[in-house]
Amino acid sequence: MRKYYRNKKGAERGVAIITVVGLLLVVLVFAGGLMAQLSMEVQSVKQHGSSSRALAAADAGIHGMVAAIQDNAVLRLAPPKVISYTYPEAIGPSTTSYTATIDQNWISGSVNYYLITSTGTYDNKVQSKTDRIVKAIVRAQPYTTFASFSINEVNQFGRAVWYRPDQSFNGPVYSGGPMRIDYNDTKGPIFGSTVQTGNTPVWNDEIDSGPPSDPGDWDAIIKGGQKAFTIDNTPLALPQPTDNLSLMSEAYEGDANATTFPGVANGVYINKGPAASGSGAITTGIYVNVNGGNVFVDGSSSANTETLVFTSGAKNFGPPVTVTINFGSPGSTTVKQGSTQTTYSGVPSGQPGPGNPNSGNGAIFVNGNMTFGKSSPDVTLHGDYTFGTPDYAGNTGTIVLNGNLRYFDPINDKTALWADDVIMNTAASNIEVDASIIAGFPGENWRSGTFRNIHCGPVTCNAGDQGTLTIFGGLIENSRGALGVWIGNSHFGFSRQINYDARLAASPPPFNPTTGAFNIVAWDDLGS
Length: 528
Known about the structure:
It contains four helices and 32 strands. By secondary structure, it is α/β, with parallel strands linked by helices. The strands form five sheets. The chain has a 21-stranded mixed beta sheet that branches.
């Protein structure tokens, strides 16, 4: 019988080949799956990259429309309805672009709002085209956004002014610079919100000397640390002459269209006529003509009324004019001068409290100078007003305060004072001014455009220590007027205390000017 023997080596090689082939098949299966997954991942990355580029373009469209609105406002043109832009690509056929439109424009609290839709597109011209849509609401930035705003960091005598650790600014601050900031790591912060300035400050660390170099230094300077302090070269300017003329026009004409002062006799005017002899519904503010002279304004309030008394020694002005504003429903205004008296329907002021249809104009403009507090140094205001005088090159007026200027209702009342100089003329102590104050015009010399204490000279203040001057509102000025001074350990004049009125950021007093900048107050990515 023949015997057969197995070739063990050959058998082993056969098994190995089968194993290798099997493994190769498994690897190929996994490799195929991996390649498919990798292909999907690559495609996903491409889609994500395309979507990101489209989103960035859509956001750029929002900012592009804001810039176009600002540019047109400078030229006194209506904002564009639609803008488009296509970005140049360095290589390849792809394109990135946006189209932005203004869907809606409205005014709330004397501030312009815009609803903008922007579509960003990325198209590689081969496989895909990606759109992303963004909506945003932008709001004009009124000067009342700021607790403190100054162009020159000197007073009217040319002396440098310092921000000190015993001061507190609890709202946004703007400075043309250079700011001089004296800080102390054991005190502060000096600034409670944000600071924007055009130049690197002059720093003085009371402990270590020199500029801030660690988080502790910044915490002593500003709440939120270094990120809340912006140093850039984007300047802001004081209100333009056209803004001031718009306030005058609202007071006399009832709209912002007039560009020259009316050629009228001295006196008080409502509805473009003498206030004490008119009638009908009020359609304007209150315009007072004294041709560069002075008008005294007294104010007293009750729950439903505000009484303003205008007195002047200007030629042919006549007896004092008393304007009694009744905020009842329906509102009415009674005007009396001597033996002449009349009653209008409506009020020349914003109505205290929301939602009343009798809300009026609120612009009170004096072609000359204005002094608050004749019969009594203290004045109380009830309503919503901007008191203004001329404030541009060649035509300037002042507002003088003889005492306190207070709201009757701090929740609803709002006031702005607008003049080339606003002057405290009192030897009393611990005074309160409830208002947003504007003083000065673009390009004005540092000697003017200030809120200042009449008792302060270049070296000291001759009324002694007057305690604290509290401003409930904000202060916008060309130069930081002298209100008080420290000499050694002794204080003379007022210590300035600004309690920022945050209501005014979104709802300023009537016809308050805006900086020309816009803030994005809402932003939403609507996807593809």
